[in-house]
Amino acid sequence: MIEDAMRIDEAEAWRAVRARDRTADGRFVTGVLSTGIYCRPSCAARHPRRENVRFHPDPAAARAAGLRPCLRCRPDDVAADELAIARAIALIAEAEMPPSLTEMAEVAGYSPHHFHRLFRRATGVTPAAYARAVRARRVEQALAAEPDVTAAVYAAGYAAPARFYADADRRLGMTPGAWRRGGQGEMIRWCRVPTALGAMLFAATGRGVCRLAFDEGEDDLRRRFPLARVEHGGADMVTQAARAVAAVRMPAGGPAVSDAVRRAAFEEAARMELARPPIAGEADRDAA
Ligand SMILES: [Zn+2]
């Protein structure tokens, strides 16, 4: 117990239990001496008395202390859920074509419906949206690295150019050729706004978003698009970006995912919010 107490902030853990905080699931389990069971922090069952509670870093430690898993919140499933999401994310990263929901659910070991809900809870976006984000990054990298657009089409895993151009048109804010030529002839407006996961760069041409990224700023943008005109987007753009950020649905607990996955999912969610038709009268129409 002394060892456990050193690793878990007990006051914080008890607060999470009282709040049934799902984001605490997987960080520790709650052992209840009076019933002999252990729970996820978010267990919906009636709260035990504080003096009967002992916190353990994981299910194995709770079992070693002689406790049984709660049948209601199934604390042992947290690790299984994390593994399921990790498998799906690996499949998305490795697959040439974005995998179907059925394929992702299959490697995760869950039904498509259950997997879809679990993924959304963990990342805030659907598996399809996350897969789109991964593929879009691949397109950007291929355009920067390959000798021409045709080579980039295949390097990004597209079987034919038609689909590539359709996707690129929606996502790059400029033609693939212009992107590859460092934004030649483009006018790019940018801003940075704070988010729950750190400051985020928004950059757009008159055609749409051309770059959305954490840990980037004006210098990165100029390096990426050395031949474009780059200007700060002003208060209007900040307002628009901040509104998109505020509308992003954050992960609601569920299995833990890496920061990189959380950020990629957040970028995609912010992009989707930006793409929603603006409320009448708020459209920003001063782009070239
Ligand atoms: Zn429970």
Please provide a written account of the structure:
The protein has helices at 2-7, 10-18, 59-64, 77-94, 101-108, 112-123, 127-145, 149-155, 161-171, 176-180, 218-224, 234-247, 259-275, and strands spanning 29-32, 37-39, 53-56, 68-69, 187-193, 200-205, 208-214, 229-232. The chain starts with a helix and ends in a 13-residue tail after the last helix. Residues 1-5 and 280-288 have low confidence and may be disordered. The strands form 2 sheets. It has a 4-stranded mixed beta sheet with strand order 3-1-2-4. A 4-stranded mixed beta sheet has the order 7-6-5-8, sandwiched between helices. It has a domain at 2-69: DNA Methylphosphotriester Repair Domain, CATH 3.40.10. It has 288 residues and is an alpha/beta fold. It is built from 13 helices and 8 strands. The site of zinc ion (ZN) has 6 residues, from loops. The site of zinc ion has 6 residues, from loops.
